[in-house]
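Here we describe the complex-level prediction in full. Unlike the single-chain runs in Section 2.1, the two entities below were treated as one system.
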Amino acid sequence: MLKTTALREAALSRLRQTVAQIEPAEALGRQARGALLIDIRPAEQSAQCSASSACRISRDKLELQIEGVAADASQSLVLMCASGVTSLFAADSLLRMGYGEVYSVDGGFTRWQQEGLPVASVEALSAEQRQRYARHLTLPEVGEAGQLRLQRATVALIGAGGLGSPAALYLAAAGVGKLTIIDNDRVERSNLQRQVLHKDASTGQPKVNSARATLEALNPDTQIVTLNTRINSDNGRQLLSGHDVVIDGSDNFETRYLVNDICVALGIPNVHASVFRFEGQLSVFWPAQGGGPCYRCLYAEPPPVEFSPSCSEAGVIGALPGIFGTLQASEALKILLNIGQPLVGRLLHYDALAGRFAEFAIETDRSCEVCQRASGRCG
Amino acid sequence: MLSEVTVVIPTALRTFTEGEQQVVIEADTVGQALNQLEARYHGVLPRILSADGRLRPHVNLFVNETSTRASAGMDTLTPHGSVLSIIPAVAGG
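The structure predicted for the assembly as a whole is:
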């Protein structure tokens, strides 16, 4: 019977013949010339300290996540483990996958440090965060870099009502670093049919207080900033400034146009949803990104008052804002992670009674007084 | 022979269409389709067009996925089997 150590040594011997091994200093040089240096040690180790500018993907995730950092198979890759052994196996695997130029750093990170090459302490997730966000970390489109990106992100939510409730819950659960919740209403019992941030015992409390309690209990990582105020033309710019994304979950046209105009002026993506009885609409208004339309391009003016009953007058099926608030959270996460195609220039419409989604193209109105003026296109 | 067009009625206007979610109409243009709709369900048209016959600024009409504002307005063609969706602004949250 062949001893297993002999099997391993035979494999290593073969890999040393087939995988190119380079000195740490050469790895640094190749990195400077465009090669991608990947620290493949376990995340807990690479999180402490790694080579400067190295990308970190642990060995067990390498094949699954490599496409996220090297979409081109001709990209030169330099793999570094702790001692230079694991990286041989990993390099062999990537070569088999079809990557054309893969190197293993001889002596690994231990030798890198011994030779005094540049290292950097890196921002990292804690062990508890790794558990919490495990299903994100597995996604090549998110991974640790994406999760850290979410942790640095700030989102403002206009309204902690039917739309704001699910949006805030999913953004907090996803680990967005800071949520600013703007609402000056108090919880009423009639809200509880759809506003799932609030509980029966919260009735009578300011909505922002109830929202904070629910969200902090869900995820202590997320900082909840509450503003028990109504956004208006005097305070709006200051309230929204500095946020990466705005979620418009307001319940009236005046606020929706105001939020649109401020977001356009500040260049912030406005993830818009609105609901009525059994129907909902969703879009992302972000003219600063590629000149897409704003809310006023879609609806130049609000309807006459007699044509626009509020939810309290018209009613709304409880699950509908749940669907649309969750879609808003999904669009916000895509924008924060810079993945996929945000719903810019498109209107997603859902009719719950018919059980039918439809998508419509929204054109930029070249005479729009708001987004075209902001972009300097309007004379 | 006129084209058969399915007009999708928004919730807000279903009080005019006796609760119908969609109505099949024969028309070659958006303008013809709306006039047919008004003939069948009196009172619905002023919710879509202003007194001067222009599309109200809080309403969009889409033939399939394309806005009539981006095509020929009321003269936009409605090919056989097309879907004309009436989408008014809503503000609920």
